TrEMBL record:
One of its GO terms (biological process) is xylan catabolic process. Belongs to the glycosyl hydrolase 3 family. InterPro entries: BXL (IPR044993), Fn3-like (IPR026891), GH (IPR017853), Glyco_hydro_3_AS (IPR019800), Glyco_hydro_3_C (IPR002772), Glyco_hydro_3_C_sf (IPR036881), Glyco_hydro_3_N (IPR001764), Glyco_hydro_3_N_sf (IPR036962). Keywords: Glycosidase, Hydrolase, Signal. Residues 689-757 form the Fibronectin type III-like domain. It comes from Flammeovirga aprica JL-4. This is Beta-glucosidase. PANTHER family: BETA-D-XYLOSIDASE 5-RELATED, SUGAR HYDROLASE-RELATED.
Amino acid sequence: MEKRKGMMKRYYLLITALLLMQSVMGQTSFSTKAIDQQVESLMATMTLDEKIAQIEGTRLRDIMVDGKVSLEKCREHIPHGIGHFCQFSSGQELPPEELRDLVREVQNYLMTETRLKIPAIFHEEAITGFATYQATTFPQQIGMGCSWNPDLVQQNTSAISKSMREVGASFALSPMIDISRTAHWNRHQESYGEDSYLTSRMGVAFVQGLQGDDLKTGVAATVKHFAGYGTKNNSVKELYEEYLMPHEACIKVGNAKSVMPSYGTYKALPISMSPTMLDQILRKEIGFDGLVVSDYGAINMIYKKYKRAPDQMTAGAMALNAGVDIELSSPMTFPYLKDALKKGLVTESDIDQAVRRSLTMKARLGLLVDNPAIGKDGDLDFDPASNRQLAYQSAVESIVLLKNDGVLPLKKSTRKIALVGPNASTVHCLLGDYTYQAMRAFWKSAKFDELNPKLVTLKEGLESKVGRKVKIQHERGCDWSAALEATIDKDGFGDDRLSKLKMISVQDLPQPDLKRAMKIAKESDVIIAAMGENIYLNGEGRWRKGIGLPGQQEEFVKQLIATGKPVVLVLFGGRQQVIADIEKDCTAIVNAWFPGEEGGNAVADILLGNANPSGKLCVTYPRTQEKKEIDYKMGYDADDQPQYPFGYGLSYTSYQYNNIQLSKEAQLTDKAIEVSCSITNTGKTDGAEVVQLYISPLDKNTTMKPIQLKGFQKVKLKKGETKEITFKVSPQVLAQYKNNKWIVEGGNYAFKIGASSTDIRLSASVNIKGEPLELREGRKEFFSSTTIQNQKLNK
């Protein structure tokens, strides 16, 4: 009887824990009773070979001959089925209908010729759009980070999801939510910047748009890279408070059910074999109950790169035991799991757990029903007008106006424009890494179609928008860099693909003519100098020597400045590029990042005043090329000020902040602390302002960072209009990780509202009372809610 009571007690504790986990900020269970029954019934009939096949990925190229699916290759390579087909579209150059038919052909083989008749998951990159031929190319994530517009991110990924489902894809290896605090990192461009709160908001929006209300019709998001990739992650406090936050938010708020560990290490162990990361932190502490997929080749690195295993069999066993469920992109170590099982390195229960999660994901995606819907019949359009409008709006909002001495927007009296620089008339400055075009150029060393989708250069954008009275003269003037000025990570890539990529980017371009460029510059009313990077100077596997303007570009800009004509510097690229020596002499500076297919139109409209810039930096813009991490939360040293601070960005109008309202006292147990203010557009142009809420501890003995973003809202204001904004902030956002616990401490705090992290317009303090509060269930509250009320302006 006592034994039965003990069992019942443990059962109720388990149910209570599960309910608590599922209730966290809308997080729902990965599985259901019906799915469990279906999966268990299926697994009961599976052989070990069939089980292992479901936890492996492969490539379409392995079953194709001369561009066609080969049934003979299918029978040879995937006789027992397969878990995933990896990057299935970016390796092809197929119109949407042909891609859909290819997916259907492969799925037909799996559902008719294999014993279990289980379809595969087709997955692809989606960071800047569905990475496939003819699909919309959105701005790179660092640009979208500067939009500070989660709603726009969600609209974009909802459109991406629709296109992916139309060809039968149901799983994406996106978003990347790593915190990046140095522009030297070659994958910096894929991040949403240096702040964990902003990254969390954008990441959750990405996941929610991609997945929709139901995974049976949406696309499963994979949040990556877990955790602390591209930065220092060996401080436990920093790891928990900062680097884990976007992952935790995407899981608990966004309901993400797929996670990818990073290539990096934690406490000297590769993440792919780290039980601390993948079991203790991810599953037990955060409460993740979904699927863990490896990064491409990451498990093999345990053996080959990190030398932590004597062979591939042991590497695969280590990863499985740590918590990796599926090996991507090719079966390199998991095929040896049969041998590992015989040697006692893994158990059948370990394998079954991974298979169970793989099949559960397929069930959630609607692939285990009778006659699953694979793709959409009829003609398909991956770049409809609605998508192009989203791409345009995204580019406009991602552009940051860094400096303006009054030359912008260009005056109507402007008659001669000198458009110079290597990025003035090229599509290669529009494309971030993991766009379809960049992947095809880098991985395949193949030229891509610039017309499908149509990629709009800055020259084309300007020419289509200026009046007949305006003459635009164009000359490159200099190359991106005469030397390659980038090195490839040969450990991971091992060839000379960078030089091939450079040749693709300069193919059909005339040699730059410096003499002519200077001539048209001297004859102009204004000089637009389009400088910066392209896809061979920035991206995974590509490392530059520094972060200044590449090659001779800075010297070219200095010569343009010497003409005495106003110079508008337009910067393209995936990172902040140090411009300290020329910044003061440029009349205006516009940072366009990698703005996607509508980049040329967006930049042109900003320059001409057809659109008002509203982007704010999601990173600190450094003044030097020193290799160090920058965290605005620690404050900037008086003798080491950045070129531009986090949150900074100019507009063609002006905004006035007034009337901050904040109670002087609050309790740690309060559900929310309200702080409000009004904002007025005091200029002559309609615009949008990113109102930023920061919190700073005022007590001397605090262990919190000096200033932290804890809320923001992008507010559209017509000229002369006033709006009142209210932030509702849970005291839980002040939580710190101390002694292996989440603790919220009372004390005195300043609530600061401003236009950047250093441009604080309003501030008020509150004394939060109560004994330190332990969050036994971990963080629940990530985001402050914001309400906006219109008010009439007193005229």
